[in-house]
TrEMBL record:
Protein name: ATP-binding cassette domain-containing protein
Keywords, alphabetical: ATP-binding, Cell membrane, Membrane, Nucleotide-binding, Translocase, Transport
Highest taxon in the source lineage: Bacteria
PANTHER family reported for this sequence: ABC TRANSPORTER ATP-BINDING PROTEIN, DOXORUBICIN RESISTANCE ATP-BINDING PROTEIN DRRA
NCBIfam families recorded: drrA
Occurrences of domain ABC transporter (ranges): 7-237
Classification via SUPFAM superfamilies: P-loop containing nucleoside triphosphate hydrolases
Amino acid sequence: MTNPNMIQVNHISKHFGNHAAVQDVSFNVHQGEIFGLLGPNGAGKTTLIKMMTTLLRPDQGQILLNGFDTQTQSRLAKQQFSVTGQTAAIDQDLTATENLMIFGQLSGLTHRAARRRATELLAAFDLVASAHQTLATFSGGMRRRLDLAVSLVGKPKLLFLDEPTTGLDPRTRDQMWRVIKDMVASGSTVLLTTQYLEEAAQFADRIALIDHGKLQAIGTPAELGQRVGGKQLRLQVTAAKMLAEAQRILQAAIKQPIQVGQRSLTVALADDQLPVCAGLLDQLAAAKIGVSQFAITSPSLDEVFFKLTVGKN
């Protein structure tokens, strides 16, 4: 039976000499979700992934993958996942089709099923025209696409993506995510690290922020936004001459410090102030103030990242 938590990280620590790379970290990743693991360079993300994928042994704590202990049941744990890292693991002397078929058969597929899966992935990653070329003829972007395809060939229950889209063009990133979302819809689970915070905000169901080896926060992107100040109102007027009067109206209604831009006003909102916003547009219209933007938003993941990690240093 599939474990409802595909990954269970329980009080994991890892030291390298006197350096504490990971310090008492615990979290669970649910079956069928995309989970983002974010943090500054050197925060401990790669060390955590190496421990989850059995490449490193933790000094203390336990990691379970689909219920299997990575230390005492490593063979069974390894059967639960596939990994895509930042460097290609493909054979440079083989064609794209040959690479995919070899990895398919290593994943337990029959020759026919491996060929069918190779054909699907070549199409998904726009590599059909190069299917029978050796990798010596491939560009860097084509090699990365093939590397991503290889990691997906066996439709793994659990997929670790360690900065998989670094250096990829937007089109290739979009291709990758279309395939990943199809896999998740079929029941696979993804743990992602990425340099692109907007990518994590768009695709991750939940995010864990790690800094200096410690877990700083965990939750959905919206929940993390609440940790650093909740919602804010952004108002933009159509002409700069209207800004002062708009600021007066906004100040009287919200009674909070207002950040003033060239034609914009931004103010933090408490939950009990949200109903006040409904009447603001009427007041602005009565004062003949043109409004080109009126939006209530949560802090971006960039703001969350800097306030909970970099901004603390």
